[in-house]
Amino acid sequence: MGRLLAKWLAQARFIVGALALMLIVAAATPVLAQQPSSVNPTASSVKEDQLFGEMNRISGRCSIPDQKACTIEQPAGRDWREFHQKTLPWIGAIAIIGMLALLVIFYLVRGMVLIKAGRSGRTIVRFTAVERFIHWMTATCFIVLAVTGVNVTFGKELLLPLIGPEAFSAWAQWAKYAHNYLSFPFTIGVVLILLIWIAGNIPNAVDVEWLKRGGGIVGNDDPPAYRFNGGQKAIYWIVVLGGGAAAVSGYLLMFPFYGTGIAGMQLAQIVHGTVAVLFVAAMLAHIYIGTIGMEGAFEAMGTGEVDVNWARQHHSLWLEEEQARTGPNESESQRRARAAATPAE
Amino acid sequence: MARMKFLCDADRCIECNACVTACKNEHEVPWGINRRRVVTINDGKPGERSVSMACMHCTDAPCAAVCPVNCFYTTADAVVLHSKDLCIGCGYCFYACPFGAPQYPKVGNFGSRGKMDKCTYCAGGPETDGSQAEYDKYGSNRLAEGKLPLCAEMCSTKSLLAGDGEIIAKIYKERVVKRGYGSGAWGWKTAYKEAIAT
Question: Which of A19, B124, B150, B187 could cross-link to B141 by cystine, CB 3.0-4.6 Å?
Fold first, then answer.
């Protein structure tokens, strides 16, 4: 039985082999007959248009150590150019000039927000020395970063014609160094701001009410607020999120090819530029309300102590909280002096 | 004046990398920087092609448009050059360039970008033609001596052509007609917004 099967299998193998041979011969003959007189080596070759259609960039193998050079064409730079030369200057000009115009108009119409009850002469601690240090470190860095950053986008249009190419390049070179190096204290400042003030900056129902009543800025109402009102919370989140986005995108550009390739860097610059000009516009409003826009506001970050009547007008709920701790008729420094003088029980 | 262009006939390039070496040697290009390179597409597969690529000296050059200090200029021969005295090493030309031509020597802290370096079409820079200062910054100025870029001049298969755009396009077209095929002038649409009909 076994021998019979083996014999049959051997016969079958022979038949299959013969059939296969016939098939090959039959298939090969017409191909030979159709061979053209001249060979077209480009028939199967790669085509530029086809490669662009597939991925909008053309890469291959190269034998030099710099493997980035293996990409020979990436026309996506054109879209980035369009953004950098047209879109970003427009966003920036509208945001920054628009905000300045808005603030000037607002100042002329509304004027300085005064302390209605006048100054009481008594003060209360609003920001400690540590808080003020963090604020001013971040603020100083921000101003330098903003000026040097705006220079990259607008400098060649505005400043270059005035001071000439040599002077402008020298300034722009230092501006680049300042922009790169001050990014580090700025980023540290943003992280510290996130940590020290997050407790007071979670949005809540009081902020909705505050906003509905004009925030004490628009109109003549003085809605209650805790330590940070709705507007300050907005600024806080603009600094934390905007600063965070600017820092991350900025470091991607500062350390090329560590985090991302060329397409990623184009995107990072788009994010960085857009966030930055909007950030500058928001900070102009912040600077306005912290200086000429409101009587008694600058002291909060200046000396760290605000007038009690200012606090009552703008942060009534916070003042109540503070006075519940310190007693209504003494300042924070007086309370400390009293606490130090009274021996612990 | 001529409108200088590069054209790489990919059907002739044998990926010998002599253009790369000649360029590095002629201009004493700093370590780690390649003004020209040869890239093989579909390497090892049927229809693979090698293309020698450098700065294409674009019409309406994107690098020049985005430069925040306007350090680029176009010569009468339509060669796109830049001033290393004005360059601040911001990297923007590299974001904009379709051919990856601008490169930066890693100098200073964090490997930050130094002055940008790229192919000069063997035409030096803004300094006096043939001066030592020009050579130190940009390499030799062959164009001022009446010579074409060395990479193309010494190409063994005459795959890489340099010269007036109309003349090299004509040479390429004649080749295509004679041999009956041609994979096109790589990069021309991107750089010059025109293609050579083949």
Answer: B124
Q: How far is CA A193 from CA A12, A21, A145, A244, B141, in A?
A: 84, 81, 17, 11, 55
Distance (Å) from the alpha carbon of A270 to chain B's nearest alpha carbon: 11
Q: Which of B32, B65, B180 sits opposite A85 (nearest CB)?
A: B65
Neighboring chain A residues of B89 at a CB cutoff of 8 Å: 176
Is the Cβ–Cβ distance between A338 and A246 less than 8 Å?
Answer: no
- CA–CA gap between residue A170 and residue A163 (Å, rounded): 11
Distance linking the first and last C-alpha atoms of chain A: 110
Nearest-Cα distance to chain B for A337, in Å, is 49
Residues B34, A66: C-beta atoms closer than 8 Å: yes
Please report, for the domain that includes residue A271, its CATH number. Answer: 1.20.950.20
- Which stretches of chain B score pLDDT less than 70? 107-112, 198
Chain A CB contacts of B180 under 8 Å are 38, 40
Residue A340: other Cβ atoms inside 10 A:
8
Domains of chain B and CATH, by start: 4-192 (3.30.70.20)
Residue B65: count of CB within 10 angstroms of its CB: 18
Tell me whether residue A21 is in a domain.
no
Write the ipTM: 0.89
Q: Residue A169: inside a domain, yes or no?
A: no
Q: Is the pLDDT confidence value at A143 over 50?
A: yes
Tokens of A273: 């530029």
Q: Tell me if A50 is assigned to some domain.
A: no
Distance CA(A114)–CA(A255), nearest Å, equals 48
Residue B183 to residue A254, Cβ atoms within 8 A: no
Q: How is residue A207 annotated by DSSP? A: H
Q: Which residues form the domain of A317?
A: 81-152+179-341
- Name every chain A residue with its beta carbon within 8 A of the beta carbon of B183: 42, 45-48
Could you tell me which chain A residue has the CA closest to the CA of B111? A255
- Domains held by chain A: number: 1
pTM (two decimals): 0.84
A positions 265-324 inside 8 Å of B (CB): 265-266, 269
When CB atoms are compared, the residue of A64, A75, A262 closest to B37 is: A64
What the block records as the tokens of B157 is 């298969």
- A64-103 tens-digit pLDDT: 888 888 888 888 888 899 999 999 999 999 999 999 999 9
Q: Do B113 and A256 touch (CB under 8 A)?
A: yes
How would you class A58 by CB atoms within 10 Å of its CB: exposed for 0-12, middle for 13-18, buried for 19 or more?
A: buried
